[in-house]
Design brief:
Blueprint lengths: L1 H4 L3 E8 L4 E6 L3 H5 L9 H6 L6 H14 L1 E9 L5 E10 L7 E11 L1 H50 L4 H33 L6 E3 L1 H18 L3 E6 L6 E3 L1 H23 L10 E9 L2 E8 L6 H4 L19 H11 L3 E6 L4 E8 L1 H6 L4 H6 L1
Parallel strand pairs: 7-9
Antiparallel strand pairs: 1-2, 1-5, 3-4, 4-5, 6-8, 9-10, 10-12, 11-12
Helix pairs in contact: 5-6, 7-8, 8-10
Length: about 375
Amino acid sequence: MLVREAPIALFVIERRREAGWNIVYCSPTFLSQTGIDPSDFTDHHRWDERVHPEDRAEKDRQWNLYCDNGESSLTFRALDASGKYRWIYNELKRVESGDPDLVDMAVGVVMNIDKRKRDEARIEAASRLITLGEIATGMAHELNQPLNVIRMAVQNVELRFESDQLPDDLRSYLKEKLLRINAQTQRAAGIIENMRIFGSGSGSEPGPFDVNDALIVSLDIMAPRLKGAGIEIEAKLGSALPAVFGQTQRLEQVFINLLLNACDAIVQRQSSEPAGAYTGQIAITTLSEDDKVVVRISDNGCGMPQEVVERIFEPFFTTKTIGNGTGLGLSLSHGIVTEYGGKITVQSDSAVTTFEVRLPLCDEIREGGLSAMEKADA
């Protein structure tokens, strides 16, 4: 009874003379913990085939450690029967047997640690955001100092040449250039402030806000990266949209993640197209529809096959190479939108990928008697 209901699974493996390793026992919880039916295989090496390629070297190291010392432990990803990887914790310990035909025998424990890994990843992501906020705050101070000096210099020059005798055409030319310099320093200061607020999370409290405002800030933050990739932006933002409820900075995080995803898809396609034959484009649309505020972000990047679309919001799922993605951005975005009572979906083919975010109106949430966050917790 205890073994059957325990939140772990037990198994026993053995190796007899002139034979390889075999699994001779699995507890009833083996299937629920690993997602693998123990009756599907009895050969120990078939388990090895299910280990994620990136974890096989560590698995081999731990197996050698068991062979030398009689015990080992390993955290790894294993492919379950549905084709998804699960995080598994495994311990193995040698046991003595009086059977002279037994060369070796071990008892193992396996435990599904998917939830723990997700929690650790969220903590790590939150820690990185805090660090980003601290860096952004310091950068804002350091960069605002020279920007203030530039603005003051421009203002002093404007005052000086107004009083000096200059030809009208030269005066007009200088004034135009000074206005342009002043406008660009103000824009730079605005971007720095947006980064500071986004990174530190020290923005507004949850309440009504305009989705368009969050999108404009997100585009400002992403502008250098999008421009650097040569991506064209087409924004059709609806006028006088109803307010939605939430914290602006958290929705900005969602939009930045979606823009990053679109940018990466376009850059990936650029690498496979002849130079000058393809122009990356991102289209952004906002509107009010069916008592919801709708945000659509489309790109003409590399697209996604259906099997990727079905898993795109799963934690840790990513199609990017090692070191270029954590598989958490879209999962966190899904969590934020859901927390605010909304819905995020994606459609993709070989030509266009569109993410759609639908958010309830602020009045709709208030009339329901609970905030979106309270509904999510209920």
